[in-house]
Specification:
alpha/beta, Leucine-rich repeat, LRR (right-handed beta-alpha superhelix), ten-stranded parallel β-sheet, two-stranded parallel sheet, 8 helices, disordered N terminus
């Protein structure tokens, strides 16, 4: 018979676990899936309302026995139980304490429920907010307005949600302590990201669902803002081929020069082969003679990740980066 997920009593009947302070018990509860966390109410009076004040909430759809598969519809009765449990859990919890972390990973086929969960999570003013939405909807789920909760937010990870211009405007005016921003497969209606607090910025537009990183490298070079404390920059799907490569690399150099504390740049999914029958040789690698050299004083490492079969194109990218940023080391790795 499988062991109970939480066992409060030990040999001799002594309940030493319940004697621990609330902060320690909250950490223990944070490792449990939500259904097991709520079941701890049956252990004793000491545990009855303890889960309601834990500062960690992680709602992961597969942990409820519902696979995330956009090609197969979810059985309505199964989803109904999941929705009922999650909604009630958040309603009980969100009126008691601010959160250290709120994470939600769910399928967007039931938009109204997922949007409600996001709003309830935001209402708890978490320090870390992670929203991962899976689906193939024509119109992606719109991130609700963060309101006053944004003033406490230190890390924000968003995947497959839509962001309007108010989000970008709030980065300077309302996100007063935000240090890490990661946007993955997000649909954006803005081109500029400006913040005086960001230390890490990740932009990944997989499957070209947004042109944000491309616009980032095509804009007027005189319009880049200053990022005074950013230390890590990760960008994806910007160097898809060698078209306008020198101009894009030069734009990247201008941005890096405006980030004086930048230490590491990660470039992912670079230099795809568009035509598998196209032949490449070293003679096709040409560099513009008047390309500029940029100074980024603390930049030590540029990591380039690429898929197999594009080695020569990546070589061209490495040569260009080496020309504009001669003081940085370049590490090239292939996805396995």
């Amino acid at each position: 018979m499988p062991p109970s997920p939480v066992r409060a009593r030990v040999s001799g009947g002594a309940d030493r676990l319940s004697a621990l302070p609330d902060g320690v018990l909250h950490v223990i509860l944070s490792f449990l899936p939500p259904p097991q966390m709520v079941r701890t109410t049956m252990l004793s009076r000491r545990w009855r309302d303890l889960w309601c004040s834990t500062p960690y909430i992680n709602i992961d759809q597969p942990e409820f026995g519902i696979r995330i598969n956009v090609r197969e519809p979810i059985q309505e009765e199964v989803w109904a139980k999941f929705e009922d449990f999650t909604t009630n859990m958040l309603l009980f919890h969100c009126n008691t304490v601010s959160l250290d972390k709120f994470r939600l990973c769910a399928q967007s086929q039931h938009r109204r429920a997922v949007e409600r969960w996001i709003r309830l999570g935001i209402r708890c003013c978490p320090r870390v907010l992670e929203i991962l939405v899976r689906g193939v909807d024509r119109f992606p789920l719109q991130l609700p307005h963060l309101g006053s909760s944004s003033c406490r937010l230190e890390r924000l990870y968003l995947s497959s949600v839509a962001l309007d211009s108010r989000f970008a405007e709030g980065l300077c005016s309302r996100f007063s302590v935000l240090e890490t921003l990661e946007l993955v497969t997000c649909i954006t209606s803005f081109e500029n990201i400006a913040s005086s607090t960001l230390k890490k910025l990740v932009l990944d537009s997989y499957e070209h669902q947004t042109e944000q990183p491309l616009a980032f490298l095509k804009k007027n070079l005189d319009e880049f803002p200053i990022y005074p404390i950013t230390r890590t920059l990760s960008i994806g799907h910007c160097f898809l081929d060698d078209y306008d490569l020198n101009d894009k690399v030069e734009a990247l150099g201008t941005f890096l020069q405006n980030a004086p504390c930048l230490e590491k740049v990660i470039i992912e999914y670079s230099m795809f082969i568009v035509d598998p029958d196209e032949e490449w040789d070293m003679k096709s690698i040409t560099l513009r003679r008047d390309i500029k050299t940029f100074h980024c004083p603390k930049l030590k490492l540029i990591e380039i990740w690429y898929e197999s079969g594009v080695d020569l194109r990546v070589t061209k990218l490495v040569w260009c980066l080496g020309r504009i940023l001669p003081d940085a080391s370049i590490k090239v790795s292939m996805y396995r």
